[in-house]
Amino acid sequence: MTPLQDAKKTVLAAYAAIDAGHDGSRFYAPGYLWYGYHPFHEKCGVKEVQDIFWHPLQAALTSLRRRQDIFLAGENVLEAGGTWVVSMGHLMGLFDKPWLGIRPTGKLAFLRYCEFSRVDDGLITESAMFFDIPHLMLQAGLTPFAVQTGAQVVHPGPMTHTGLMFDSQDPAEGQRTMDVINAMITDISRWSGGNTEPLEVELRRTWHEDMLWWGPTGIGATYTISRYARQHSGPFRKAFGTRTFRGHIVRVAEGAFGGFFGWPNLTLQHKGGLMGMPGTGQAGDMRVIDIYRRADEKLAENWIFIDLLHFWNMQGVDILARTTGIECVG
After folding, report:
1. Does the model's pTM come out above 0.85?
2. Strand 250-254 relative to strand 283-286, pairing
């Protein structure tokens, strides 16, 4: 078995223990580091993560089940290195008890998630788990954000239904995916440097015309290059005065899928207009996961997780407290 397949086996065993409500500590290294969205942030040790995240969530979403849409592994191409396993999909359960001040509905609920896990010597040493809390808030009848430029949907998995890569993949295919992801990142960096070419011209170099962009609640999903430019990328770029790229911690690809995360990825100064919010002039961090599907030599689908609760908290707006009336401390 290859190192990637060994790493997948470890992560799947840990997931099986968590999903069954068992103590999966044996799959995690001492000093395990966990990066979680606001209000959780960084935690150290699997017990702390279980106590502050998993146990309360499992109590709130009874009969919790993990519905994976993408599962892959890869060697981190960035300087930090490491073997990483990526899982993306929904945590599904019956919303029977409050969670983070969000009132239960007694109905089926979905929590979008994506998790990157590093595996060393058969143990998980660190993870970044991002989840779309505002999406769950909407399902509970709350309105965390007043304005959204894209569509609000329950995000599906890949159109090709090929995202669950439990078996080994051709390394050459993963390299093709990484190449186009890197090319797209280079194009975005030109915007930071003051590139004035039309946005749609930039996008067509690395994206298919009928691209699908599955954005987080507060921004929403969009379809085709022209609508993506109009409903997300254009308004997003217009809303910020300065943009500092902070880098990625991990960038991996396997087969036709790949992605990255940072902590944070970007620091942005909000001039005003994003999600209908007034400008503050203050810098704010965006922690982002992007997952991509490549078709031929261009990107076809993109699933995005942005810690908008953290970004707006840095702008002086506590979305959770304002919407639920309860202040949460991680």
Report:
1. yes
2. unpaired
